[in-house]
Amino acid sequence: MGNFKHLLVWLALGIGLMAAYNALGERKEESQQIEYSQFIEQVNNGEIANVNIEGSLASGYVIKGERTDQTTFFTNALPADDKLMSTLLDKNVRVKITPEEPPGMLRSLLFSLLPVMLLIGAWFWFMRMQAGGGKGGAFSFGKSRAKLLDKDANKVTFADVAGCDEAKEEVQEIVDYLKAPNRYQSLGGRVPRGILLAGSPGTGKTLLAKAIAGEAGVPFFSISGSDFVEMFVGVGASRVRDMFEQAKKNSPCIIFIDEIDAVGRQRGAGLGGGNDEREQTLNQLLVEMDGFESNQTVIVIAATNRPDVLDPALQRPGRFDRQVVVPLPDIRGREQILKVHAKKVPLDESVDLVSLARGTPGFSGADLANLVNEAALFAGRRNKVKVDQSDFEDAKDKIYMGPERRSMVMHEDEKRATAYHEAGHAIVAESLPFTDPVHKVTIMPRGRALGLTWQLPERDRISMYKDQMLNQIAILYGGRIAEDLFVGRISTGASNDFERATQIAREMVTRFGMSEKMGQMVYAENEGEVFLGRSVTRSQNISEKTQQEVDAEIRRILDEQYAVAYKILDENRDKMETMCKALMEWETIDRDQVLEIMAGKQPSPPKDYSHNVRPDDEGDNTETRPAVPVEAGHQDTPSGSGDVVQDGATVSPEADPQPNLNPDSVTAGGEGTYQAPDAHRKD
Asked: How do residues 288-334 score in pLDDT, each as one tens digit?
């Protein structure tokens, strides 16, 4: 509001200056303006009674006059016409000459000062915008942008945080210290000066920090790591100093720095190198954190999902003494989080939060909050007064697989090929041991996928074993083999299946030591981003001959699993035909229909069959959706998304407990990776 008022003042000032300039330089234009040639003609015709010549030799003349019919006029003339005066006198025209008057003092001041005033005003406005309109006027850009949440306004407590019990236990003593610091100080102890919350996006790091301040009843300063660095040198360090000065005045308090990796990356690395502005800001942060007096009780809490890129000096004891991992919630944690968010919506008796928690492995707290919100939107769209289980299931399908594209039209042959493709994935998945059950198979286009096979684990997966990874490769090959066996033509729809299968086989050989020929050795460098705050260069530590052997071993694994999937589908042709027919009729089948087909029975209609039917499916129409032209190598979805959705977090006991949420990650034991909800897709 203050910025808006200042803008109005500047606008009013500018309008006033323009009005004054126009008033001072105003020329009466009620007279008729004529051309100079017309003026000479009227003089020769004796139509001009008198004229007043104004101006100078330098700027030219303005001739104002009155005709014999008492009408007035004016025209512009250059001083080069020497015959003008004699012509006027010969025609008995009364001539008055008025020399050009110098402009008034006020007008001269406006001419000279107006540009300077505009430049000064623009500079002040720019500086205020850089400072965010904060206190201190144009020179406040060095002030802290941390927002203060007063202890009376912070209503968040540990009761609002669910799904991370261990993390809450880790920070509980921080709350005790802030409530009664003398109890610890009398024993010579000190609380950790800094706590680093590390976890995947959406796991509740910010909420946990607010809960700490809410439980302790102390002020809470919050700022983002990107708010420190500006275009001006020294601004970041100045803001760090100012933030800690404010914190000391309000101690005991908590400073929360979100996304600290924006300013806390390791120094002296990266393509930029050198002592840049970010490094100065980091240096000042290190000094301030290690310069506290023990009685000031200012605790710094920072959050990041990239703890590996932080500067080691930032994580040493005395600064961020303690690192608290905020993991993705397990099934019990997901149930608790769903209960917290479900309090805000009216639930039908059919809603089973336990089954929803079991069916959402890998979901973060933010994902679960979004699930509840999407379910409420589905219920509102259907004019319901309460949210029931079907709304939650539809919301889960939308989040995992994308929104339905019911208006999309595809040719009957393309639709049948998609049905065989997805049936191939499902039949292979159900025929192999140690695989996740097929939860749903659909040829309903969703998001950027034309069909999906969704596998849902029965429990949270801690790690994956060799046989599970081999079976996953066979499942990925099921779609292409089904096209070859039952359609007679192969398409580009399996390109992403091949990409993922190759990636799994490569990881088995080069990282996980699952090849007897290559042995228990790592042949691949850790694939990470260049700007990790570490080294920019990457090295290849294996010879060309060894690389050829690695490639040959990868090819062997892929060929063997292709043969496994081929044999399964060739021996289950009747089940393939039954599933394809069911998909062509209903477009989506659930777990119940899959089990009936695998048992050799005819499947019963899905419970929500009427919900799946689209208007264009009615009647005899051989072209239900147009064929989609797909060039070789082109996919309807980006690389990293397939048409087999396999959910579940995979974390080995030796690995970093924070999953990697890269959509291209392979679910594999020992690396703490999580296969994001992508999908086995038939494009």
From this structure: 777 655 556 778 888 888 887 787 887 787 778 788 888 888 888 88
Q: Where are the alpha helices (DSSP H) in 205-363?
A: 205-216, 235-249, 261-264, 277-289, 312-315, 331-342, 353-358
Residue where the block lists tokens 């944690």: 333
| H helices present in 131-259, as ranges | 165-179, 181-185, 205-216, 235-249
Catalytic pick from 422, 553, 587, 671?
Answer: 422
Q: What is the pLDDT of residues 174-187, one digit of tens each?
A: 787 777 777 777 77
The pairing of beta strand 588-590 with beta strand 644-646: unpaired
Residue stretches of the annotated binding site for Zn(2+): 421, 425, 497
Q: How many angstroms separate the CA atoms of 626 and 603, rounded?
A: 28
475 closest CA partner among 596, 562, 417: 562
Please confirm, yes or no, whether 66 is among the known catalytic residues. Answer: no
Q: Which residues are annotated as a binding site?
A: 199-206, 421, 425, 497
Binding-site members for ATP are 199-206
The span from the CA of 454 to the CA of 422, in Å, is 10
Which residues, in sequence order, are CB contacts of 118 under 8 Å at separation 6+? 14
Looking at the whole model, is its pTM more than 0.85? no
**Percent above pLDDT 90 for the chain:** 1
24: helix, coil or strand? helix
